[in-house]
Amino acid sequence: AQSVTQLGSHVSVSEGALVLLRCNYSSSVPPYLFWYVQYPNQGLQLLLKYTSAATLVKGINGFEAEFKKSETSFHLTKPSAHMSDAAEYFCAVTFSGSARQLTFGSGTQLTVLP
Amino acid sequence: KAGVTQTPRYLIKTRGQQVTLSCSPISGHRSVSWYQQTPGQGLQFLFEYFSETQRNKGNFPGRFSGRQFSNSRSEMNVSTLELGDSALYLCASSPTVGQGKTEAFFGQGTRLTVV
Looking at the predicted structure, is the pLDDT value of residue A97 above 50? Predict the structure, then answer.
């Protein structure tokens, strides 16, 4: 079965500092990986996705993630945090041939300190 | 292009009642998935519909059901509501089914409170 682990349920960074949110997956077949962001009382917005093309994926709002097969990781980074980045972030996985059934990590709440 | 629309946004129901939530996907999208989000269990897949057929179902009791209409709009129903059904219910639409490369576009959700 597929699974996703997000290390750190809460992460705090200072404005302007590097953001690093960790995601590890388990899979016996090549996965498709996604990062979503959720603001309070809102749905999920796609930040970026990995679909077996380039291993370094660039997304919206300055975020990027690198797929590392050897480490089964897909960590999300942003060089310089902005106050507006404060939200909850979810890593999700699905597999080729499966229906649109996403398996989500437990989420990481990002706080940006002034 | 309009996004995924879920109605109502907020709902309060009493234990034992039933509830129906509605989801209108992005125009042209034929796949609709439903997810339940709770603080304790996180985001969990409920079921997916494509061309009016349920393609996949998560690990939820039979009280949770859904359907999809010919215009791709979808409804989910929860019967005999329990306190633990209080959650944010999210609907997502996708242009295709069975192809992991396409992303799911989420609506703003329906916040269900069971009292």
Answer: no
